[in-house]
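DM between two lab members

TW: hey, do you still have the Tryptophan synthase beta chain entry open?
JB: yeah, one sec
JB: this one, 388 aa:
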Amino acid sequence: MKKGYFGDFGGRFSPELLMPPLLEVEDAYKTIVKSKPFLTEFGRILTEYVGRSTPLTFCPNLSRELGFNLYLKREDLAHTGAHKINNTIGQALLAKHMGKKTLLAETGAGQHGVATATAAAYLGLNCIVYMGATDVKRQAHNVRRMQLLGAEVRPVESGTKTLKDAINAAFRFWISEQADTHYCFGTAAGPHPFPALVRDFQSVVGHEARQQSVEQFGTLPDLLVACVGGGSNAIGLFHAFMDDRDVRMVGVEAAGSGEPGCYHSMAICKGTPGVFHGARTQLLQTEDGQIEPSHSIAPGLDYPGVGPEHAWLDASGRAEYVSVNDAQALNAFQSLCRHEGIIPALESSHAVAYVLEYKDDIPAGSKVIVNLSGRGDKDMGIIEEYLG
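TW: and the structure you got?
JB:
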């Protein structure tokens, strides 16, 4: 496969001024991240600070109703409450090894911003986080957490004031401050090497799930399910199972309200190939190539593109991609709360909704793992708005 590509997707389509820092990160990825001392230190921090490994939790009540065995990979129990911490610890550690002083990040739901601020504080780095003004309002709790951790949060007023606009602003800042700054990209998207770099740091999720499956129920799972915005939690779960052809992999995109013509975030299910944020991938665009607005009740899924490895997995048929709407995600949110005593993030609720909505397509007795990418306390303001 061509360097930096996943089939026909990926690559590095960036302005000339961004090439020096991208090439610097690529070189560090090949020489530092692959080294044994780095991996040993990264593993130690994941164990001692992040709290890995996270459990694989059986859901007895929902399993009884559904007719198959439902397990949750509990990334909500990692430090800061989401899978995002795996990647930010990895990139913060990389930044230290590269001699950088500042971690730069963008965030939608706020979880990546909190995780970046946490990693920066732990490793003694400055932290600047760009966040769409709309997301600043609907994730005020996470904004306060970032500020308590010492980060400077910069609201972005341009465009739809959401994640894509925050990424645009972060890239502009990186061009001017590349000497001392590492851009801690938050998902498995963007220009090479970020899709592979983020995937590798998140692959701990799948490696643990694979080992825990064998230990807990004596075989590999039949089905993996994860929500997909940019797709970092999904690719982190899927990667360790890529060669296990009997294991189905399903990514769940956000269908918005589900009404005809509504804004949504179905970059794979409804998008077309194009170049966005430095990579060729599936994205929401007009016939003229202009980026269309996206929407999801879950801020972390509110993104008009997707990581290029997911676009390739869809094109190759190795993974399936479906969608659920806001109402279905809210129903799944309530079901998991009331049946299992677990409050999931609205992003993760889309993955849970798949197994509830498509239960008839899953054979009885199957072993199903849903990646619970984050916890739902960050979403209480949105939940109150919709459910009262």
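TW: got it. The CA atoms of residues 257 and 327 lie 7 Å apart. The two ends are 51 Å apart (CA to CA).
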